[in-house]
């Protein structure tokens, strides 16, 4: 199905059209490009213009460029613009303008991707739904998500992130949501902010993009909740709260039992109960917020409650896997995609709640939490005093900041400290065994995925990162 004709894309961007073409998708990466896509030659770590010829050879129907690359035919199907990123933003704005979709935008220091995926799961059962891929939530991810939105979309869920002040509001205004949600506010990105209160103010800027009569869905259980609700009032937005302290979407119970979390809540439509197919009180909170967003979008509430049990986290975001070992199995909690103090505490609580089999142990493999500024060492050391830590047998630490936690742990819990994930991965065969429950958690740049891959390789007789073969 056609997503953009060349004429439509040219009208949206003001660019110069070359050739008569239409596209069925939009891509910025030749590795994931599909035949029929519009290849967008963004300049990031590398200049996308260097890959235009490769994209066209791989089946791209056209390319969005600011110049004709030397290795591309003069008559190639192109849309030529002064600035590729600005053109992508214009294409996203045009896609948003031409659809009648009800749009939600989500931000937060933790939980935004999981909540977005929950909403994608439950709303897709009620009509054509479009959402951000993975964590495409930055200055190019949001316009790319919008530019990919089909005309017939009924619901859209746009994830918005930030690293520095002033990033959220422009993206929110581009997305123009009918509903905006803030999952939580935490000590993340403190290198760029003076305080958690300043982070809350930046997160609340997502409300600046709300459409007239827009609705804010806000976490009531935060020390900074007042900042969020005050900004909603300043903008004249209707605000609904979710959480233990909330009157609107009030969490009555979240009981973690084995592989599941049983949730009871009181909503404006009455009491609801559902079971999530994954353990974690934080997932219960995300689900409650997602329920509030779905209500505000006009989805059928009963259908949403019925669909929530069909959601499960995916790899790197708290996914639970049973892995084979030569003499049995172990349980992997793969939360390796990212980390900050709040998400780390939530992941450790999940680890504490999962019972090992037989003589198995609870083992945490934790990597540095980045972008915490001068408070970084103390925030890492503070993990040792979390209530969940009392239930964990061994903690292996990775990275210079995690040395602070390693030193703060009591001797009986102190595992290995390693500089890198690859260094610890090589040693894993002697550190884990039958019946263990193993958590992998750290900031993305720490490469905890190497540990996860190593764990998966144990039962397959695979080589470990660093092994000579």
Automatic annotation (TrEMBL):
It comes from Pseudodonghicola flavimaris. It comes from the Bacteria. InterPro entries: Mur-like_cat_sf, Mur_ligase_C, Mur_ligase_C_dom_sf, Mur_ligase_cen, Mur_ligase_N, MurCDEF_CellWall_CoF430Synth, MurE/MurF_N, UDP-N-AcMur_synth. PANTHER family: UDP-N-ACETYLMURAMOYL-TRIPEPTIDE--D-ALANYL-D-ALANINE LIGASE. This is UDP-N-acetylmuramoyl-tripeptide--D-alanyl-D-alanine ligase. Its main location: cytoplasm. Belongs to the MurCDEF family. MurF subfamily. Residues 329-443 form the Mur ligase C-terminal domain. The lineage of its organism: Bacteria, Pseudomonadati, Pseudomonadota, Alphaproteobacteria, Rhodobacterales. Involved in cell wall formation. Catalyzes the final step in the synthesis of UDP-N-acetylmuramoyl-pentapeptide, the precursor of murein. Residues 23-94 form the Mur ligase N-terminal catalytic domain. It is an enzyme of class 6 (ligase).
